Protein 1
Amino acid sequence: MKRVLSGMRPTGKLHLGNYMGALLNWVRLQGDYECYFFIADWHALTTDYADTSKIAENTLEVALDWLAAGLDPERSVVFVQSSVPEHAELHLLLSMITPLGWLERVPTYKEQQQQIGDVAAGGKDLSTYGFLGYPLLQSADILLYQADFVPVGQDQVAHVELTREVARRFNQFYPPPAGGAPVLPEPQVLLTPSPKLPGTDGRKMSKSYGNTILLTDPEPVVRQKLKTMVTDPARVRRSDPGEPDLCPVGDLHKVFSTPETMERVYAGCRSAGIGCIECKGWLADAVVAQLNPLQERRREYENSPALVREILAQGSCRARARAGETMEQVRDALHLVELPTEERSR
Ligand code: SF4
């Protein structure tokens, strides 16, 4: 089977945008690929280094949401980045060969500095070595497992392209012995179909906008959040016809509702035959039905915190074994001194 790798920062409890944009796709990949999924806690430090008090808790929350969503530790290697120190070792070695300009021109570098890096406006100081280097840490994450594919959304394609460039450069400097395969194969992008998923204020669903519906939100909370969600701005009065294609609620219906419900939404909205409250109620029914089985599974894992830790520990152990194989080839390729294992671990 071809190998797939992807990760997520531990930002705390996940929301529907995380689920529909990545997690659900990962669950589906499990049967067809050898899957490695990791919680990128070192990546969280690149922006949140000043307050690390929530990282451990958030890591476990993300693990719970992954397991609840159907990631199966029997079929996938589910692990924590910081438990596999080889990520840091490869990152360091790759940093030796990566020109600064490659990192400075990564689109998210400037974007994020503008969005959250304005210290005068209460933002975070992102003028750090670690923040500049985070796309290279991502490259190390991928190349460490000699992954064939990286499932990403369109906005992450540039990062995989950087990884390919870095791998090419590594393989040029340190070619394999005649006839051998390159040590760091260039990964391919596996584009994740990501439906438009607005949050309750109509902008993209995102934790930083405070407009999310969490996978853990109980039914009354889901209903209340959807009840106050923004709608087609042209539909001011109940008697005004609306247009679901211009309404964030309509966008969510397209993701969660059946074709039959969709037909009722189009007909009822365009003729002003239904009110927005009724329409949002149908959406809430669909969302709650989607979340129920996840929440049930989550409760089982919540009742066994030791089991969750054990799953992460075992996954990290398997990941480390695989990462170790790559690092042996990498050290060989760089002609670093080889010592007996006991010597190295002293
Ligand atoms: S009826 Fe539904 S789709 Fe139409 S404007 Fe209201 S919430 Fe949006």
Protein 2
Amino acid sequence: MTVAPGSPSDPSRPTAAVLREVGGPLELTTVELDPPGPDQVLVRVRATGVCASDVHIVDGRLPKPLPIVPGHEAAGEVVAVGPGVDDLRPGQHVVLSILPRCGRCTVCRDGRGNHCPWAGALGATGTLDGRRTGWRLDDGTPLHHFNGISAFAEHVVVPRSGAIAIDPAVPFASAALLGCAVATGVGAVRNAANVRPGQTVAVFGCGGVGLNVVQGARMAGAERIVAVDLDAAKLALARRVGATDTLDASHLDVRAEVARLLPEGVDHAFDAIGRPRVLEDAFAVTAPGGTAVAVGLYATDATITLDAFPLIGERRLVGTYLGGGDPHRDVPALAADLLAGRLLLDELVMERPFTEVGAAVDGLRAGHVVARQVLTFAG
Ligand SMILES: [Zn+2]
Ligand SMILES: [Zn+2]
């Protein structure tokens, strides 16, 4: 393999944040990383966002094989490529994608690569190819990968399809968000809901994903964008990125307030939290012909109860996964939106050193983090 000049630390001995047991601390330790195999890429991670899914792994709500390194919203530089990778080269800037794909199965060939069974096996087994992990602890214990990324680490090896080249003008901290929060939020607007100019939107939850639903709706030309949250600071941020109205759900009847603002109902309502009650609220406020979009990650045993009669109004309830698009198409387009000043990410990013990963996860779990925490790496 060819290693890019100037790589700071030994890529075969990166520091990673290892979760050994559910609820346990994220332990910063040096691990042994294999060089990239066929169709794999070695990436020096430069920025990693801390997303609710990472907290879910630590807390066991998103069960994964242990020990594991969480982290999945990341950007970095290609350090080396494995055999067969002829379209990425050392030094290129990449956004990592939680949605690798084999590109060969019938699902992939049918344009539904987000549901590629090979990628599903990667996620379930915590491996890089369905069989082997690419790194281990110092005592030889195999270390698992989170959906082929595991970006709470200085260097990672990822499947070729999990690295998307982007314009190097995009700062790493912003680029990281393109891989999850932005892809999920803006993608839900563009791919799942297909918001059109002049339409109305309600967004429940103004965390990292919800704020990007808000600005996706603004970029789509929505006329009214009602943002709902319990936190006044998050609602203020929602206004800065495009909300026309905000509702503090801590002391308001949200359904009644949305109806007061938009008596005919909203064309598109998004649950950007992932709670059954919120999704029920979203469906309840839709107008005839409207769409409720499930954007958050629900508990595996969550159920919802909906009034059935409103379905005669041809309302739709749709699910999405990471914005429902093709990351290889959408991430470069989002990078272009950013560079053109349409997508606002500076407002959403709060950089922290990688060494504070544990505190960052605790802060997100506690719910008092307003902006997206992005871990950056020394050197
Ligand atoms: Zn995420
Ligand atoms: Zn496939």
